[in-house]
């Protein structure tokens, strides 16, 4: 485990060439800043998101974890909007339930890392350093925070929590 409160430990990481996927969940668009956290936290409390996805086993992928999918397609100098979708990665042909949003994830390389402890910023920096050895990271298109056991992990001390991070990338 990490010996410094803010220094995460990289458990494992890999870059995979994935087939097309669909990320399905509920989206909010928020201006990047402190008040955004209140809105983002509220979306995580919508239990119906995961109840719907749990009932779609035939469309599940190996990425069964709850996740936050972050996009910047509406970001500009004026609005600074970040898309934040709470949900899961599903097969590309998954029908989207009423009231839910989706993002088509095209075929390509995804860097996947799981980290114990520390804060998100340091973890993201660690992953980007690993990626940049052989790839170009493209987190400005999308990235995802992965929560392998969201409810149990939220009760742990930050130094013991396991979180994941996925980042779109391409070969150099």
SSE order:
EEHHEEEEHEEHE
Please, what is the average pLDDT?
Answer: 85
Strand content: 35-45%
Largest sheet: 9 strands, antiparallel
Form type: globular
Q: Helical segment tally?
A: 4
Report the span from N to C terminus. 32 Å
Number of domains: 2
Task: Tell me how many strands there are.
Answer: 9
| Structure classification | alpha+beta
Low-confidence stretches: none
The radius of gyration is: 16 Å
Instruction: State the helical fraction.
Output: 10-25%
Overall description:
The chain starts with 8 loop residues before the first strand and ends with a strand. The longest helix has 12 residues, at 120-131. It has two domains: 1-18 and 107-172, no CATH class; 20-105, no CATH class. It has helices at 36-44, 47-54, 120-131, 150-153; strands at 9-18, 21-31, 66-71, 81-91, 101-105, 108-116, 135-137, 142-147, 162-171. The relative contact order is 0.25. The chain has four helices and nine strands; from the N terminus they run ββααββββαββαβ. It is globular, with a radius of gyration of 16 Å. The mean pLDDT is 85. The protein has 172 residues and is an alpha+beta fold. Strands 1, 2, 3, 4, 5, 6, 7, 8 and 9 form a nine-stranded antiparallel sheet that branches.
What brief labels describe this structure?
single chain; 172 residues; alpha+beta; 2 domains; 9-stranded antiparallel beta sheet; 4 helices; 9 strands; globular
Topology:
Layout: E1 9-18, E2 21-31, H1 36-44, H2 47-54, E3 66-71, E4 81-91, E5 101-105, E6 108-116, H3 120-131, E7 135-137, E8 142-147, H4 150-153, E9 162-171
């Amino acid at each position: 485990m990490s010996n410094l409160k803010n220094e995460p430990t990289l458990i494992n990481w890999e870059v995979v060439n994935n087939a097309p996927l669909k990320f399905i969940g509920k989206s909010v668009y928020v201006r990047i800043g402190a008040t955004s956290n209140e809105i983002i936290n509220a979306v995580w409390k919508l239990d119906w998101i995961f109840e719907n996805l749990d009932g779609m086993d035939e469309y599940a992928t190996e990425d069964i974890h709850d996740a936050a999918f972050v996009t910047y397609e509406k970001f500009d100098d004026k609005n600074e909007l970040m898309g934040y979708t709470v949900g899961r990665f599903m097969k590309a042909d998954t029908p989207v339930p009423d009231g839910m949003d989706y993002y088509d994830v095209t075929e390509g390389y995804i860097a996947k890392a799981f980290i114990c402890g520390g804060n998100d910023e340091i973890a993201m920096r660690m992953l980007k350093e690993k990626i940049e050895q052989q790839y170009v990271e493209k987190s400005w298109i999308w990235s995802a925070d992965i929560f392998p056991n969201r409810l149990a992990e939220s009760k742990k001390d930050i130094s013991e929590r396991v979180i994941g991070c996925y980042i779109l990338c391409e070969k150099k």
